[in-house]
Specification:
The chain is an alpha/beta fold and 109 residues long. Helix content is 29%, strand content 14%. The mean pLDDT is 94.
Length: 109
């Protein structure tokens, strides 16, 4: 699988523009994904120098990844959205033909 993992709030605590401390379990999970043969795409709104800081942080902490904000080679669909089989994000909701549940969760009605 290609697994897209959000950076701020998922791999590290939210402290933008700084890089916050690592979230408990993040390194172990990412290492397990990689060991199982999955591709890891780090997904972040950081660009330019800030994106390079993410790259250096990942390398310095021996956190496995294949790409940052770029399609994993062989999975480039030539679209703005990076392809992944799974997206892990602290702000996401799981959609499973459950619009009524999502509406109730967000609006209370």
């Amino acid at each position: 699988m290609v697994i897209a993992v959000d950076f701020d709030g998922t791999v590290v605590e939210h402290e933008f523009p700084k890089i916050g401390p690592l979230k408990p379990g993040a390194i172990d999970a990412l290492k397990a994904f990689k060991k199982a043969g999955h591709k890891i795409l780090i997904w972040t709104c950081r660009q330019g120098e800030a994106e390079q800081e993410v790259r250096m942080f990942m390398l310095q902490n021996n956190i496995p990844f294949d790409t940052i904000n770029m399609p994993v080679p062989g999975y480039d669909l030539a679209t703005r959205k990076v392809y992944a089989d799974l997206y892990i994000d602290d702000k996401g909701l799981r959609y499973d033909d459950n619009w009524d549940d999502i509406r109730k969760l967000i609006t209370g009605k």
